[in-house]
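2024-03-11 09:14:02 INFO receiving multi-entity request
2024-03-11 09:14:02 INFO entity count = two
2024-03-11 09:14:03 INFO echoing inputs for audit
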Amino acid sequence: MVSGFIEAIKSCVQGVEPVEVSYPEKGYHYALEAGAESLPVVVGFFDEKRFYLECLLCTDYSDVLELVYLFNTHLAPCRVKVTLKIDPQHPVAPSISALYGSASWYEREIHEFYGVLFTGHPNMAYLFLHNGIDHYPMRRAKVPVPPEDQARLDSFKPGEAADSFFINLGPQHPSTHGVLRVVLKMDGEYIEQAEPVLGYLHRMHEKMAENRTYQQFLPNTGRMDYLGAMSFNLGYVLAVERLCSIPVPDRARYVRIIATELNRICSHLLWLGAYLADLGALTPFLFVFDDREQILDVLEGIAGSRLTYCYFRFGGLYNDVDDQFIEGTRAFVKRMWSRFSLYEKLVTGNVIFVNRTKGIGTITKEQARKFGAAGPVLRSAGIACDLRKIEPYSSYNELEFAVPIGEHGDALDTYRIRIAEMENSLRIIEQALAKLPGGPIMAEKVPKKLKPPRGDVYQVVETPRGELGIYIVSDESDGPYRMKWRVPSFSNLMIFPELAKGVLLADAVAILGSLDLVIPEIDR
Amino acid sequence: MGERGFHLEKEIIPVKFALVEKVLDLARANSLWPVTFGLACCAIEMMATAMSRFDLDRFGAGVFRASPRQGDLMIVTGTVTKKMAPVLTTLYEQMPSPKWVIAMGNCAISGGPFVFEGQYNLVEGVDLLVPVDVYVPGCPPRPEALLEGFLKLEEKITGTRRFPRVESAW
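2024-03-11 09:21:47 INFO inference complete, emitting structure
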């Protein structure tokens, strides 16, 4: 798709001028500007060519609001940035939620944070914010919320119906893994409609980024997704390194891989324990925490913390790894290999577990594309999209590993994939340890105060939950002008209302668990 | 009890049986039943405290209850947002007396790292909503710190400490 893209879009859509941009500098391949009239045609073209909507975001440039649509294809990356400029006095844009299910939530998010009204959107209710909010938080100037929007603040009001009733799943519920709330419309034991309500842990990361320098924002990344903190750390430093063109020494790149993969195993282990606990098996929880503590000991030795790591720096690492770390990692890898057979006996062959997950929450390829599913959920649908393979960063292209995919797209497949991914991570760690080069761990001459050139970058990494995208706009100051986080759990949760339609309440819990949600990452 | 927050009306107990109360307090301190109330990052450390290595059950406090009506201790583990605040208060009110609250982590204590000028969604400290008995600082606190928080709470309930205090080397 990359080579013939310009000709293809020019022949299908009249009056657009796509520009090829330098991928290593920007992180996307093409950029084009659309008008409010041509946008539906452009989006129709992407849908026809089987692109998925990666992200939809808004930036406030005071005199103009800019909507950015990022489209991409799954197996051969061809990322296209489509911009739409709108008037901040009358912020109205056409909705594309009819074509892309994933756009629906992004549009609702932009509406509540920027006040952009999307025409043709079926449900503009607020997703994140609480009832007391009186202005659009992400706008540069203080814009009060007009009365017609105030009515939308109370995000979900169950209506009256004769045969059905409503159940609140959360925000305090053990199986929502935190503070997610799902309002369920039930017909007896069966779910008619599921409506997630977010924002119970909205910690304003994106707003904070606009108030911080690049270095000051670094600790926030570990708190956004506390289970995959290393991956989020890595994504952020890679994005800033791309923005400021900072080279990274070989040794640092390999250590980054080892640390990130250890953290990935840690995250999958916790998922395994929590998911089985959701399904009623409490014992594996104790087993996985035993393994997990071994990893935490190793990572604590280099990063200094157990959970919310802040180990990477722009241009390298916080400190070098020592022999103790390498020995500890080797010992853990050896131990972990022997544990899989235990899990196999405990879990995989367990008939209750299999019956509760087989054929539950089946995702088709088309659904995965329309809703922008990511990570193991996407791969369970049979799409072998792993960004470590497709858009290699750090030194992943020098290592060998497989991309496990599912056959049916059900919850059991996501379990199998995560187990296979842990094995893969062990293989990656073994190779990286064997290849670990010497030399410095920090790039030379990284300025204390970063002043990146004007412009934007997009950086993706594969976190334990899937594709994380970071979009940074720089205005030549020492902090980002705008930072957008495209987070995997958010796009995976979008698919949940589709999957939950018509299933039993107990199965909905099994589906919700198989998506591996981390709530602070969704709410940001 | 938090000084900057509001105070709940002190419970009025018409008759107090001194010795019976002491025995009851001893029982309460050694069988704290926490409510499963995970908010953010600290919840993972709370889980780690209850699991294999740190084993909260040693102190009789490992029985996490999913329903607030069965618990007598709320561990606020993470950031409290304005949207979550009414939910948290409701949960607290549903718990039977006597009840205690541990504020775990900097977010629950004061808003922690998420306080900045112009913030619009944060309750800066859970003690603005409910009375807090023990504060456990850290971001997130280590499991050892939470265990120390439990020992502190036991001390508060019974007046005596289970283990001799370990003096810091620094």
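2024-03-11 09:21:48 INFO post-check: DSSP finds five helices and four strands in chain B.
2024-03-11 09:21:48 INFO post-check: Chain B has a mean pLDDT of 84.
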